[in-house]
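User: Predict the full complex structure for these chains.
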Amino acid sequence: MRRRLGLGFCLAVGWIGLVLLAALLADLLPLARYDETLAGPPRSGPSLAHPFGTDGLGRDVLSRVVHGARVSLGVGIGAVLLGLGVGAPLGILAGYRRRATDAVIMAVNDVAQAFPALVFALAVVAFAGASLRNVLIVLGVLGIPSWVRLIRGATLTFAEREFVLAARVLGARDRRILWREIVPNVAVPAASYAFIGMAVVVVAEGSLAFLGLSVQAPTPTWGGLINEGRTLMEDAPHVVLAPSIAMFLTVLSFNLVGDRLRAMTDVRESGLEPVRQAVAAGPPAAAHPVRDTLLQVEELRTHFVTPRGVVKAVDGVSFTLDRGRTLAIVGESGSGKSMLIRSVLGLLPGSSVRDGHVYLSGDDLTTHGPAEMRSVLGRRLGTVFQDPMTALNPVRTIGTQVMEPLRVHLRMSRRQARDEAARLLASVGIPDPVRVLRRYPHQLSGGMRQRVTIAMALSCRPDVLFADEPTTALDVTIQDQVLRLLHRQREERDMAVVLVSHDLSVVARWADEVIVMYAGKVVERGPAAQVFARPRMPYTEALLRAAPRLTDPVHHELRVIPGRPPDLAGLPAGCAFRARCGYAQERCAIETPPLSAQDGDGHRQACWFPLEVAGPDPATAAQLTRPPAAGAPAPENASGVESRGR
Amino acid sequence: MAGSGKAHLRPRDDVLLRVEDLVVEFPAGRGRTVRAVSGVSFDLARGETLGIVGESGCGKSSAARALVQLPPPRSGSVRLDGVELTALRGDALRLVRQRLQMIFQDPVSSLNPRRRVRDIVGEGPRVWRLPGDRVDEVLEAVGLDPATAAERRSHEFSGGQCQRISIARALILDPEVVICDEPVSALDVSVQAQILNLLEDLKARYRLTLVFIAHDLAVVKNVSDRIMVMYLGKVCELAPGADLIARPAHPYTRALIASIPGGGSGLPPADTLISGEPPSPVSPPSGCRFRTRCPSAAARCAAEEPQIRQVGDDHWLACHYPALPVSSKE
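Assistant: Here is the predicted structure of the two-chain assembly.
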């Protein structure tokens, strides 16, 4: 889980360490005394004896910069610790307790934050006297409001999480929950902010010192050194440059470390990480005969190069689709079904490598540039995604969003577009469409929002509608309405539909053809009724069996698929499903089964030992063959409780 | 329906959890309140699994959290083994919570990303300073290998494995009641089956009493002895699973069953049984809350809230005009 920290981060840490060490050991280092005048000739440039030269009084600049670091770092670290020490408990309290505690703390905090900080600092230091202690306290106190805000925000995001609720259910006291569950999670953003805070304080101390309001002479500070050297700029610029560069590098390093720490907390562990090199996705696909179909996908491959290896998200998928047909693509998460859709549409992250062909009415989309692809996407290929809330822009009205494709692609006037939008909304079953046009997405229910995205996808009369888990985020009664709607629109508009789902039973009723995916490959395909009634690939069969059905008896032990889907970055040789397959034999580990047909009915499977035909033992195979009842497209033939053996 | 009443509570000795007139409210902004749960009653016998099913916003999760008093309900009574939980405060409440554990929907969010599995699962015994180390035992019980799993953090596990860890954390305190709030709805179907079977095994092994909440009726039916159907904060129907599926009496139950794809329920198509969308819980309809979407709603449904009544052997219903003539077996 170690992430690459980068050279910049290492250099920054090195510099901070060096400055810190020098500041701590300033008295032990073989340096001239910082206040010894005429240690060398005044205003002399860098030399062997005085690497940074000498100032106007002949004092060693290196020694003064090193001693100045004591003040800068001391104030920086001290003020941040003070701000953290006071701000963090208040922030955690506000974020965890919320309600009245939160209201009071944040009200006081807002007032404090509204105070002009620099004026306050100047006033206090001028009044109480310029000493290391006073500067540290003033800068520390000024930082408290930001700390409260930051820590409160971080606490809020975790206090809502279920693991905090779980700890309370276990009976843990608040103090224990704070220390065990909240603090460790807040610590990382706090550490990141501490470094950035130190950079701010170092600059602020420098500014105060420059104005003569920090630690007084003879103790050197960086800001003070710059101030002193100001008059010598012309004949001895090194006197100003040395402390300036030291300060610049220190501030830069603090910021770099802080940013890097924050980036580390932002990145969640995900399978896909940015590519480091581009490689070809495999041998170039051979030219395929272009058939006379609406959509033809040939040997489509999408690979990602990640630090863990090449992830074959889509691995050689081919299919064809005609008007008036629905193709369902099913598989579990990580099977590559959504990535297949995105590969067909050319909507892939930049780090991917795509290979193969996508023909739309004989026209190869993979050769299209971005501009050509945009016009195809809007007009000929429509898309509906899982979460309608993220597919819609929350700050624009439904009307402007539905009208946009009409105006851009069909070049309608405002009035025409508005009428057409209302008509579209009515056609997807939205009551009172004219009023809905003026509403915002958050004012509609999930089902209504999904109807709106369907209306948008249909607006330019696409040839193919791609629906990626269109009902997964919806309630079951609404789910049925939306699927009916998609089906009706397909009939009315004579288009083709590609329906992606993890739930076989959802697509069973509405699909003509089915593709079952596993580990980026098609493992079974064929007419829907046949695939669901008589699956041949053990994976399809297991998926169908794993979902509980209403007709199962109560407390019925479900057939499980042992294990979990394989890691796409390190697929074993042979069949990817074999580790979870009850029928796997030696051959499955050696050779990858091709997608092959048993007879001419279009039903194909990628399996060496397909069910029905050559199970390991004919009795088991017969027992496993599903009765044609549930899952079949006609639900009325499947009434009554069906009992199955375990 | 969506009706009220307590006729269905059983005067049995083995009732472990009894909930009466539970009301849960949340502020909805601008001074309004949402009644997420409004007057729900149910009971749970020792060793029984009660399934609660309904769509989003029906109040099933709010009811579950009110059981563990997080947050406590607005009004109503929750009695565990005769002890009134809503009256308890502070340490007394903490002590009782040990007996009532919970499993949540989101397997990732349920586990602290910065702690090791051993610490997450061992938290309960540490809170209560219990002797002995049962972490390995419960990890094995949920099907994880303690040697490889215990020292790792949650991001190294899949969703199904995270859910197993959550279950181990709930089990280690030897709870009497485990409330499972949509425990499998974030999981793939192949993993879902593993977790459902695991819950059934553990229930037998540790003699658990379960409240199993889900939106998927087929999943609920698989594990539940009795199923309670909820709609917009109210109870619609309560019956043993097989009976509910075979003889659904409430129009909403019928619509739920018919909406399940490929269910083979023998019911007419779902679009003839339910229309439109759920109304806002901020201003629910008068009378029966389901009437705005119900094909058999009549004037009486708007005027009068249906009360829960018995329509069969342990089959309870809150509807003025049940969609099927239900023969009540006396």
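Chain A touches chain B through 75 residues (CB under 8 Å).
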